[in-house]
Amino acid sequence: MKVISVDSGRHAVKSMYGDKRALFPSVVSHGREFKMDVDLNNKDYLWVNYDESEYFVGELAIKQLAGIQERAREKSNEYNKLLVLTAISLYVDQKDPVVLLTNIPARDWAKQRGEVKEVFLGEYMITHRAGIRQGIAVKFRIDKTYPLPEGAAAFHGYVYDENLNIRHPEFLKGNALVLDWGDETVNYVMMSNGEYVDQYCGSLDLGLHVAHAQLQKLIEEEGGEITQAELAQHIIMDTPVYIGKRDFDIRLHAIQEYGRLSEQVINQLTGRVPFNRVRNILNVGGGGNSLNRTIQNKLGDLCNVYSSSEGQWLNCIGQRIMYKMFTEGR
Length: 330
Description:
The protein has helices at residues 59-63, 78-89, 109-119, 152-159, 208-221, 228-237, 250-270, 288-299, 314-328, and strands spanning 2-8, 12-17, 20-25, 28-30, 45-50, 53-58, 96-104, 122-128, 137-149, 175-181, 186-192, 195-196, 202-204, 241-243, 246-248, 280-284, 304-307.
């Protein structure tokens, strides 16, 4: 039985099995004739055959300028299912039984968990036509799915290690607020002495795409053209955006837009979360480190504010820890 953790966000899919990790952009297109010569041995390229159809996934879809990013809230949608199954196929061999640990935004967890728990169950076959598993066809069976709330999983991934030892005991004393900065949503989860405070848990539709849309608009006003998927890659890799021979100072503008985004989030949360009762704040997710300084500047006099170098992996790590707690009765 292979226990595989998959955190599928709108920007990127992160997955873990044992000590192996994989990350690829959440971009998909139908496979077709290539627009250019393609090195099918490129380890970052994913070209898969699934359910008798061909798909470019992740970096390859972006490079072929044909990818789409879906914004459907339902984690049971076919687009998300393909991304999750592709992630699983990176770790399985023939006829492996799988336990899937996967994510749902905190706001939607109670409503969607039943459907997500069922929709992935079954047998699958995925053939890789490019990348690190090129030429390999894998069959696997998902026997169980554990849908886990974003933010809550990140809390467990930060506080505990894989052996369930406590790494950050300060987060088990008093109230701790996790801000999980994703591309589509910001999840906020309040924990009091390690227990959920349901009334202060939820999601806002103010993910990084809000800031990225403004950056995209600025680039277009300067005469450039870029997709949000390409823009996000430039920000992650810290590479300039060229408009003709000119380079657009994306880092400076990103800092400004992230500052505006954090202001919007805090304004909306002020009516939902009593910050004067929060002892510690943890910024996680793909934007956790980028936004940590602005949150520190705005709330640092009231709360202790932290981020983690493993911020974008903490939901994956925490899913494994929560599963271990479930199975060990902790």
